[in-house]
Write a structure and sequence with these properties.
By secondary structure, the chain is mainly beta. About 0% of the residues lie in helices and about 55% in strands. It has a domain of about 120 residues: YVTN repeat-like/Quinoprotein amine dehydrogenase (Methylamine Dehydrogenase, Chain H, 7 Propeller). The mean pLDDT is about 95. InterPro entries: Quinoprotein_ADH-like_sf (IPR011047), WD40/YVTN_repeat-like_dom_sf (IPR015943).
């Protein structure tokens, strides 16, 4: 049985990550807690709404109600890296060479590696933002679709239309596909080479967590009483193919998914606080954590693939050591 080092905090856990191999937990009140030879805390945002790990895995980028973007390092230093006045920062993303993007209202902002700041305005509010895996390109989730921008050039954006409110966004690791979460209980995708649509519907609730498997051959998602895992091996992605349904538990909803760094395995967090690891090939399950106080809201594997950090909406946090 895996061992758990618990950390009981007071508040909603927005992100649980490893920074330079040190477990960190960012709460909605803006405190960032770390387990580094004891429990230590630093204050970042005043009201934290969103978080993203930088590409080096050494900084946590957070945005909040204070209109600031912070970068918190593994040494516990929290630094303001961008400001938007009184506007709430509702989405953040980390890009290549230290670039970062964030959303305020109808604008997507990109801070380029040289420190230049660019604004991209949209007719409706920007709901989600993500960097493409290759090159300096961002995707923006918006009402009625997604928009792609090349921040380093003044080129015309690419508009991808699909009716409805798109709330989150992710690129496949190979850059061939773009997938959005929707206000409806569905995902929508585009094959970027030709704009072909991919409809992924049938969820009983909204999808709030997505995770790409190693090499991008699968996309795991929350929003059902199982992790719904879509196949992306074929050139047209999941079209015409049924997803895997992993870790089904009656009517207990999956709230968070985190795919293993190198193997086709997903860690699955549930609304009752349970965490399972499930293998794609045969749906074999391993119990990592029994039910707790609140729904799991954050999960991440470490680089050594031995530990998993988790956080919940009730502040139940901790580190699971699966090698024990």
């Amino acid at each position: 049985m895996p061992t758990i080092a618990p950390l009981d905090l007071d508040g909603h856990c927005v992100a649980a990550v490893f920074l330079a191999d040190i477990p960190h937990f960012a709460l909605a009140d803006g405190t960032v807690h770390r387990l580094d030879h004891g429990h230590k805390t630093v204050q970042a945002n005043d009201g934290l709404l969103c978080a993203a790990l930088d590409l080096t895995g050494t900084k946590l980028i957070t945005g909040g109600e204070d209109g600031k973007v912070f970068a918190t390092g593994a040494d516990g230093t929290a630094t303001v890296v961008a400001e938007a006045g009184r506007k709430w920062i509702t989405s953040v993303a980390a890009g290549p060479q230290g670039a970062l993007a964030y959303a305020t209202g109808r604008s997507a902002w990109v801070k380029l590696p040289d420190g230049k700041l660019k604004e991209f305005s949209h007719p409706r509010s920007v709901e989600g933002i993500a960097f493409a895996p290759k090159g300096m390109r961002i995707g923006v989730a918006r009402y009625n679709g997604a928009t792609l921008h090349f921040p380093a050039t003044e080129g015309k954006p690419t508009e991808l239309e699909w009716a409805g409110a798109h709330t989150g966004i992710t690129f496949s690791p190979d850059g061939n596909f773009l997938v959005t979460t929707m206000q409806e209980n569905a995902l929508h995708g585009w094959k970027l080479a030709d704009g072909k649509h991919m409809r992924m519907s049938g969820y009983p609730s909204k999808v709030k967590s997505l995770s790409w498997a190693a090499r991008g051959k699968w996309l795991a998602s929350s929003g059902a009483p199982a992790a719904i895992v879509w196949p992306f091996q074929a050139k047209d992605g999941p079209m015409g193919k049924a997803p895997l349904e992993l870790g089904t538990r009656g009517n207990t909803m999956v709230t968070t998914v985190a795919c293993h760094p190198s193997e086709d395995i997903a860690a699955i967090g549930y609304e009752d606080g349970m965490v399972l690891a499930v293998r794609f090939a045969d749906a074999k399950e391993v119990l990592l954590r029994r039910p707790g106080k609140g729904a799991i809201t954050a999960l991440m594997w470490d680089k050594a693939e031995r530990r998993l950090v988790f956080g919940s909406e009730a502040g139940d946090c901790g580190v699971i050591d699966i090698s024990a």
